[in-house]
Amino acid sequence: MAFQEGDNLRFIWNRNGRDIADTMNKRVEIDFLQLNEVGGTFNLDEINCDVYLWDLQTNRYKLIDNDRELDGLVTVGGYECNDGIDNDGDTKIDSQDLGCTDRTDNSEQEHPRLILQRFCNEHPNNFFCLKMGLSDIVSLCREFSTSPLCVGEEINPDNLQNMCALDATICNGVNDIATYCGDVFDNGNDAIICNFVLQITSSCEEENSCFELNDDDKRNLCKVDGSYEFCNHFPADLGELCRNRECKAGLLCNPNKICETAFCDEGDTRDFECQNGIEIEQKCEDNEWIGECPRNAECKEGKTKKIFCSDGTEITQTCKNFKWKGTCPIIQEAPEVPIQRSQNNQVIQTQPQIEKETPITKQKTQWPLIVFILILAAVLAALAFYFPSRKQKSKKR
């Protein structure tokens, strides 16, 4: 039955069949705790609370016996949520404990899903609740060691990096930490990230150490990486990343996604360094810098470098169209020696095949000999003509 504001209620408490208390318009949980505080109940006592509602038509109290939450018999100490003891050590007893869903709940320990849901609702700027992981905090504290979070929590980036090596999930974070850890525990598993963030919820409540990012932390993170959702609320300054956010007034986002001065003087030129380290020349036209960074560039136009080839030679390469031009000489490989095998599969040693000389090659090798013979014959003929033989000389005499 649903009660309305202004209803006149009466609660009659009964222990082991005997009435022990009669109260008006008070919360049942408070009455029950007060009875325990004065020693009114003991473990295994059977406690019953009858609820009465004042009936305006009959001008008398009417017993309401169909509301399980307010009426019914319960055995003290039968469950953790009705034994009058702080079972989980959080200084809250039974129905005052958020872990108790009703008085028959046998655990005062609150489910991790509910703990983390409440924590992220109360502390939305905790870095786990912002879908971040330890790697993000490592980047922040290494680049900006004086950032409020790094100083306030006395964060050592190296220690967090070591934790990253143990578990990728705690390093990268998850989209919904409450849902993720709730599913982990529901399946009877365990996870480093869940234990870590539950420790943070305890330290947040006890020591006000909640690992929350303030605006300065967020602004510093956006300088490192502008892809965070909250970076939209922090316009990028000169030289900062503008991948997913706007630049401040008077600045524009250049091709490298970095904020720069929006205007320049007509005709000016400048050397601009791209993200891959390549420098290009930009020219000012219509008060804007013109010249986009090339994709897959290897070098700056016109530069040279020397490289050593595999054959021991050295060549000079020149950068043209952002690519290195100039290749090492091709080394000709020795002809392959064919492997021949005998009938019993033994390797027969063979020599590299030598190409036979063509007839033209043979002719080329014979020409010098022919010329030499012709010259020798001519010399002998000339000697014979000028120096006749002895027989011819004697006949003349």
Q: Percent of residues in helical segments? A: 25-40%
What is the strand content? 15-25%
Task: Please count the beta strands (DSSP E, at least 2 residues each).
Answer: 15
Q: Tally the helices: what do you get? A: 11
Radius of gyration: 48 Å
**H/E element order:** EEHEEEHHHHHHHHEEEEEEEEEEHH
The backbone outline, from C-alpha atoms, is elongated
Oligomer: single chain
Distance between the termini: 174 Å
| Model regions low in confidence, pLDDT < 50 over at least 5 residues | 66-71, 357-363, 393-397
Which key phrases capture this entry?
three-stranded antiparallel β-sheet; alpha+beta; 397 residues; disordered C terminus; five-stranded antiparallel β-sheet
Describe this structure in words.
- By secondary structure, the protein is an alpha+beta fold.
- Among the domains are: 68 residues; 113 residues, no CATH class; 62 residues, no CATH class.
- Helices cover 31% and strands 18% of the residues.
- Strands 1, 2, 3, 4 and 5 form a five-stranded antiparallel β-sheet that branches. Strands 8-9-10 form a three-stranded antiparallel β-sheet, with no helix packed on it. The protein has a three-stranded antiparallel β-sheet with strand order 11-12-13, with no helix packed on it.
- Strand 14 and strand 15 form a beta hairpin.
- The radius of gyration is 48 Å and the shape is elongated.
- The C terminus is likely disordered.
